[in-house]
Amino acid sequence: TYVIAEPCVDLLDKACIEECPVDCIYEGGRMLYIHPDECVDCGACEPVCPVEAIYYEDDVPEQWAAYTKANVDFFDELGSPGGASKVGKINRDVEPALSLPPQQH
Ligand code: F3S
Ligand code: F3S
């Protein structure tokens, strides 16, 4: 799977959403999250993020390692809806984004 990391927090550029062929990038309160089971590893989202927030799971920078778990934890209650557009924005986040101070961009 691919993982969205800290640079997305409080920016939510959303260019990535347009690229995903399986609509598996979900909008939380302060960032977006990639569904680890729905992502088909196509990689189309990664180059379009203007702040390089998206990484293949094996390439997530060490300082953002907790975001790999965040992209799993976000879906604890949601399960696998099979498409982000029908779900819409979910005004909720998980750690570490949840407790992160406001980010300037
Ligand atoms: Fe976030 Fe980058 Fe997508 S800022 S919303 S991961 S394009
Ligand atoms: Fe979609 Fe990116 Fe995965 S475009 S399929 S979330 S690698």
What's the rounded overall pLDDT mean?
Answer: 98
**Biggest sheet record:** 2 strands, antiparallel
Q: Return the structural class.
A: little secondary structure
Number of helical runs? 2
Task: Give the tags.
little secondary structure, 2 helices, binds FE3-S4 cluster, two-stranded antiparallel sheet, 105 residues
Description:
The N and C termini lie far apart (26 Å). The mean pLDDT is 98. Strand 2 (25-27) and strand 3 (32-34) form a beta hairpin. The chain has 2 helices and 4 strands. The chain has helices spanning 15-19, 66-73; strands spanning 2-4, 25-27, 32-34, 54-56. With 105 residues, it is largely without helices or strands. Strands 1-4 form a two-stranded antiparallel sheet. The structure holds FE3-S4 cluster (2 copies). One FE3-S4 cluster (F3S) binds at residues 2, 19-20, 22, 24-25, 34, 39-45.
Write a brief caption for the model.
12% of the residues lie in helices and 11% in strands. By secondary structure, the protein is low in regular secondary structure.
